[in-house]
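Forgive a beginner's question, but would it be possible to get a protein, spelled out as residues, together with the matching C-alpha cells, please?
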Amino acid sequence: MKKKLLVTNDILLGGGGVEKLMYDLVWAWHEKYDITIMTFDYDKRFYEYYPKDVKYLSLSKGIIKPNAERGFWFWIRKPYRAIVELMVNAMRFDVLLCMKDGWPLWRGVRYKIPVKFAWHHTDYNNYHSSNYIFGNEENEVKAMQQYDNIICVAQNVKKGICDVIGDPGNLVVKYNPINVDIVLKKSKEQVTDIESMKLPEKDRPVRFVSVGRLNMQKGYTLLIEAAKKLEDEGYKFEIIVVGAKEKWGDEYEKIQIALKETGVKSCKFIGGRSNPYKYMAIADWFISSSIFEGYSLVSQEAAILDIPMLLTDCSGVRELLGDSEYGIVMPIDVDGIYNNMRRVLENPELRSYYKNKISERKEIIDFYKRAAEIEKLFS
C-alpha cells in the first residue's frame, strides 16, 4: 500500500519559490505515493497544473473571497480549527510535508500524523516576524520540535534559526530540487511583449531581468533608486521585472510611488507571467535586489540558463556564487546595487566572463539527487 502524504501550504499557485518547490516534488512523487495537497486559499485551477491522481483540499473553500490574511482569523476560531483537525486526523496520513515556516508550521503541529517535516525558507538574522504567530521564541522552538526535521533551504537559514530563537535540535539543510528540464524547455518560448526586442541587436539597451513577487522582501524600491542614478548619468539599459502584485501588503503601491517620484524610465514592471523563464533567457544579466531570502530558486534557475548574475548578499547567494567567483555579490543597499550595475555597464566583457563561470556552477543543481535526499527522510 502506498504511503499517504499530506502536503500543506497557504496558497497553491503564487509564482514563488515555495509553490515551485511543492509543484516539483509532487510531480516527482505522485505515482509512488498517495498524495493530498491542502492549502488555505482555494484555487479552482488545481487540476490545470497538478496530476489527476493527486487529491486537493482547501481550508477556505466556501468562504467568500478567501485569502491567506483573512483566512487566518477563521483558522484561529477554535470551533473551525477543531473541525479541520478532526478531518485531517480521520484521513490517517502517514507523513506530513509542511512546505513553509510560519502559519503552515503552526497549524501542522496540531495534526496527529506520525511523521512530520517542515521547510524553513527564512534567514532569521535578516528577517524574523513570527512572534505574532507563536507568541515568543520559546514557543516557536517548541513547535519546531514537534517535527521530525525542520528542512532548512540553506546553511544561513539554519544559522539564523539558531542565532535568533535557539537550536530546536532537529535542523537539517537540504537544497530545493529544481526541474532543469522544465526550465530549459520553457526558456525557448519566444518573447513578443518587450519593445526593445524589436530593435536591431546593436541598438538594444543592456537588459537586466529580475523575477519575483512585488513584496517588501524583493527590494524593488532600492533597484528603482539605483536605476535612477544610472539614468541620470546617461547609461543605456533597461530593467524588466517579472512579478505579480501580492494580495496582501502595500509594496505594490510603494513601488508605484517610487516610479512616479523618481520619474525613472528604465524600469519596466510587466506583472506576473506563467512562464518567467523566457524573459530570463533574453537577459544580459539577471539581477536580484532582495533584502532577504532563504536560498533563491530563481537565481538557481538563472544559473541553469547560463545567465550572468548580480545578486544582493542574502542567504544562499554565496553558496551559489562564492565570493563573487561565479557571479557578482552586491551589498544590500542602493549604492551597492548602483555601483555594481555601473561596473558591468562600463565593462561589457564581464558578461561573457561570468556567463562562463556560472555555467561551471550549474552542475551542483541536480534535481533527482536533491529530491532523493529529501525523500530519504521519510521513505
Q: What stands out?
A: DSSP finds 17 helices and 13 strands in the chain.
